[in-house]
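Hi L.,

As promised, TonB-dependent receptor:
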Amino acid sequence: MRSTLTGSAGSHRFTLLAGAATIAFAMPGAALAQDQEPELEAPESSNVIIVTASKREQTLQETPIAVSVTSGEVIEQAQIRDVLDLQTVTPSLRVSQLQTSSASTFIIRGFGNGDNNFGVEPSVGVFIDGVFRSRSAGALSDLNNIQRIEVLNGPQSTLFGKNASAGVISIITKEPQFEFGGSVEANYGNFNNIFIRGDVTGPISDNIAFSLDGTYQKRDGTAEIVNLGVDQNDRNRWSTRGQLLIEPSADFRIRAIADYSRIDEVCCQVGTVVRGPTAPALDLLGGQTQDFSNFFNRTTNLNIVPENEVDNYGGSIQMDYQMDNGLSFTSITAYRELDNFFRSDIDYTAADIANEQRDQGVKTFTQEFRVASDFDGPINFLLGGFYFDETITQQSRVENGSQIRDFFELLAGGNPADILTGQPSVFNAVEAGLGLQQETIFRTALLSDENFRMENEAWSIFGTIDFEPIDGLVFTVGGNYTDDRKNFALSANMPDPLANVNLVDAFITLATAGAVTTRDQFQALPAANQAGLLAVATTPCPPGVTTGCNPFVALAPFQFQPPFLNVPNAIEDGRTNDDEFTYLLRASYEISPELNVYFSYSTGFKASSINLSRDSRPLGTDFSVTPGTVNSTFAAPNSPILDAGLAVPNLVAGTRFAGPEETEVYEIGLKGQFDGVGFNLAVFDQAIDGFQSFAFTGTGFALRNAGRQSVKGFEFDTTIQPTDGLVLTFAVTHLDPLFDDFTGSVVGDLSGVRPAGIPAWAISTSATHTHEWDNGTKLITRIDYQHESNVDINNGLPTFNGPINNRRNPEIFRREINNVNGAITLALNSGLEVGIWGRNLLDEEWILTVFDGVAQQDTVSGYPNQPRTYGGLVRFRF
């Protein structure tokens, strides 16, 4: 099935699969998992799920938070390799990987951002063993030796310190054990997929234990760069982690962790969804552009092989001390580094038009300290502090290809015969008219050369107080005060000669025979003369007309990388300083030992994000131009930047940063655990004021605040164990989102419009059956199904559709997901296991997302999903 355009395509497949799904009800994390070593047998109904979502060990039923749990057992059984696969068993979570191996976005309840700009921190915080991973690229290594993964829905700023305005993904790995043991696993699958992982743990002394684990994965690409004969969307990554657990006494323990992971891949395949009018020009240059009929053939044509390299490493020390008086102390100290490099062909054709590369580095130090009580009395508390210090550096550039001038000459109406034979054409005449050196437009080596740096220091104090006046009734008050400061420095050189000329101002200078060369000289003219010059200078010349118009102004679309105003400067200090107090009010009640209910109101916060890109522009309060003047500096009104003499040619207003996000959510929850049946229900009304929207505009990215985005909905999951050995799970999320206020989106006023990309219904369901023979050998069979209802992929594309109130093209692209995965494992009593597995077994096809073709008017590009993968495994536990 291909979900691409508006309509009901694919609904018949959902009907069939939904019918099949009614026989398998499931909680996304194969609930009933224990906080124990993972076993392959189906757990007994008397077992409970232990979570630390509230930074205390509690059962899932006792935890008054909407949280989904995926056990290490399910991760092994379902061959969940990384957090991208986690969404198949957690319907409130969505993870997307797009431009590069490191460009991923985590989304919970429809809220998420930060996929393609290191200045934008994710709204969904990722924590691994209590350590905050500030960028999604730092959380993408293969999952191994996992105890459980908790997905906390809704704002968690009260207890999780840094920027968790939409939710938290908390990954907990297994601690070292004082009993020797371990496992080794080898997988082989289609596309020559080799995946090896293993772990070993044991004692060093009576009070010191160790563990060591690692993974290695190599796979051919699921797509092919046909003209270069190279695979794309391959896998080439490895990771290792070592741990020490030191217990000097019964009440004091130290856990030290060091890890390193590496990704070196050719990612990510882009296909053509709509072939625009620029395609013939590209084909004339050997671009070999394709149309949508080849989209799911997973073939492409590029002029270079993309490079994606990610090195992620660091360490942490956690110390826990338990006092006899009921107080416990926890300290987590961590330092991490992330190096991310990529180089890619940004026109996605075989023509040599333009390539982009980025070299990014992130250095992060965090310190968390908590004290918690476990008193017998009615009052208990948790109090903590969190410190965050991070430095980000980025060197970026866009390289002009050898054919970029020829391509734009063709789009400008040049004679193909002259262009292909190297004869003078359109740009030669432009160079002569503007007094530029011949053969210089689009002949510079670089279109842009950029250097960015951001330093972020933040601290917070947080805590909760629980008051239990009678058994089973608990009132909770929580709060968090955060202070977040960012300093940023942005500099860029845009060397293209045409981009450095203001076409209106240059015409005025020519029309006045050089008498007007500055803004002051223009402003000194009589008002009638100014108006007359502007009228002519802003009027494009129709074919065959040479008077009363400006022959250069039609070239403005080719100035898409104009000069950059560096920051800090005399007007812009390159600083943000945010502080906020967020809080939680909650009441929970144990109706019976099997049933708990809670109600909560909470707020969340995420500090300002910085646009670390060449698309960073001064705020409209600092600089503005007169509408319709093609950014004329001569005619621009007074503004701080202009008055300070800082304005560069073709400067426009925009944003350097997006202000903070502020979240509030009302939630009612019901949790039950009966003999053989468990369930969780949460009904919520959640909104984010100032949601940080980061959108591609065709040649760059715009970072803006939505006024308000809200979502109402519910989450329900249940686990049923009808007989020994059979566990059925079912989880569903229903979302009804709305842009309450978003007047400044890149596609116009979206106020009152449903945000795209958020399915109304998301379902995860599974069935796991374990047959055990008398000798202890087991056969474990698992099947799971993921569904996302048909939804618009986005609210429109700036270049393809235009503004929402004046659409050039009404076509909106859609996506529906129906994904079936399965595995069968035979576990012998000797510790040897063999199995087979498959993901996307029905080989369903859908578009992950779409975007405007880069500098290609009315072309739409997109990313296809992963095809069917399958394989076999051998595992040995000892």
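The longest strand covers residues 446-470.

Thanks again for sending the construct details.

K.
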